[in-house]
Design a protein that fits this description.
The protein is an alpha/beta fold. It is built from 15 helices and 15 strands. The chain is globular and about 65 Å long. It comes from Candidatus Hakubella thermalkaliphila.
Length: 398
């Protein structure tokens, strides 16, 4: 297949506002191009300028999904035309869920229910690239998930729970490959750049630092009939946790905002922290995903809510504590052999979280030594690129 140009359309979450998604896209394209340098990419996005600025070296062309191009997020004419031009459609990230199923501003699965059959009708290959699947609660959501997944030519998922859910809803293809999240192979910024940022932010090397990440979706994903957490109570609790941990462990705190929309929540939490002088805020509005990843490697411990904040931290072999607001966080902790390092939202309060952080702090060096599983997952993640290129070769030889 060497020398044969192949065009791949990437369908997933591509706003440029989430450091985890940015890391994911970069890793996917880099790994495919390492095996097939002639590959090119089209990326439907609401932020074309971001794609041009950050991914031009990977031969990535943005496809605007802005409203004046006849789009409502992924559902629109530009995406259908991109699929029509492609040799392969690659679905990535955790976009296979049924929350707000028919709201195209929030949910992509209903759009995929139209795009994937369209791709197959026009003879395009369809692959899932290390996807996270779920949650899917409704009968219609399960039916759609089974239908589009059974049309895929290749499925790789990032965890066993995703595999189990696909089987549960009726995906019958014989081979579903369990790999790992592509963002594990994101590259951190060089050490000298990390040191520059630490100096800029006043993150002093003679102090010990714990990183923390939260998510604006405090109760968005809570199912009907279950107890949610109000934003006000959540920010008050996180401020209490930060103050307690700083007192009890004699550490300082770096809050990491990996999604621009979360920054106001971080600012509100910091306003309630008593020891504000011992707190820093690092955001992906100011720093790249590579720089944030490098900084995460300087933390003694990281407490995260957004999945990819946890993935980027553990990829740097930093011990983690997960706030389990969605099953995908629980699944990741299981995949790295640390199922007890999560606090379920049903059990969320300041006392329990402080207790888990402090017990993890005492065991952090042991935990750091035990996370060799992360190294194996990095290699598992790379399998997806090999399978994609192999599928393209088979199409050529056929």
């Amino acid at each position: 297949m060497k020398g044969v140009l192949k065009r791949i359309t990437l369908l997933g979450s591509v706003s440029g506002r989430n450091a985890g998604d940015v890391a994911l896209i970069a890793s996917i394209m880099s790994e495919i191009r390492n095996l097939h340098p002639e590959g090119t990419f089209e990326i439907p996005t609401i932020n074309p300028a971001f794609i041009k600025k950050h991914y031009s070296h990977l031969v990535a062309r943005p496809v605007s999904m802005l409203p004046w191009h006849l789009s409502v997020k992924m559902l629109g004419l530009p995406t259908f035309l991109s699929v029509r031009r492609a040799d392969m459609v690659l679905v990535f990230d955790a976009v296979l869920f049924d929350r707000k199923l028919f709201n195209p501003l929030f949910n992509h699965m209903s759009a995929l229910a139209l795009l994937i059959p369209y791709a197959k009708k026009h003879g395009k290959l369809v692959a899932y690239y290390n996807v996270g699947v779920g949650p899917v609660y409704t009968s219609l959501g399960k039916k759609i998930l089974a239908s589009i997944s059974n049309q895929a030519d290749l499925i790789t998922v990032r965890d066993e729970d995703s595999l189990n859910l696909l089987r549960e809803v009726g995906v019958t293809r014989l081979s579903i490959h369990v790999t790992a999240d592509a963002a594990l192979n994101n590259q951190p910024a060089p050490p000298e750049r990390v040191q520059e940022i630490m100096k800029e932010q006043g993150i002093f090397s003679d102090r010990r630092w714990i990183g923390m990440n939260v998510n604006t979706y405090v109760d968005t994903w809570v199912r009907s009939g279950e107890k949610g957490i109000s934003r006000r109570n959540f920010q008050n609790t996180m401020a209490q946790v930060a103050d307690s941990v700083m007192d009890d462990l004699d550490v300082d705190i770096v809050f990491f905002a990996t999604q621009v929309m979360d920054i106001p929540l971080f600012q509100a939490i910091i306003q309630e922290v008593k020891k504000k002088e011992r707190v820093r805020l690092v955001t992906n509005r100011d720093y790249t995903n590579h720089e944030i990843m490098g900084l995460l490697g300087q933390m003694e411990l990281f407490v995260g809510m957004r999945l990819h904040s946890l993935i980027l931290a553990s990829a740097m072999y930093t011990p983690i504590v997960g706030l389990v607001y969605l099953p995908k966080v629980r699944s990741y902790l299981k995949e790295i052999g640390q199922p007890d390092q999560g606090l379920e939202f049903a059990d969320f309060n300041a006392r329990r979280l402080v207790s888990l952080i402090e017990s993890t702090w005492e065991r952090r060096e042991l935990i750091r030594q035990q996370v060799e599983r992360v190294g194996r997952l990095k290699e598992e993640s790379r399998k997806a690129a090999r399978l994609v290129v192999e599928l393209l070769r088979q199409r050529d030889s056929g």
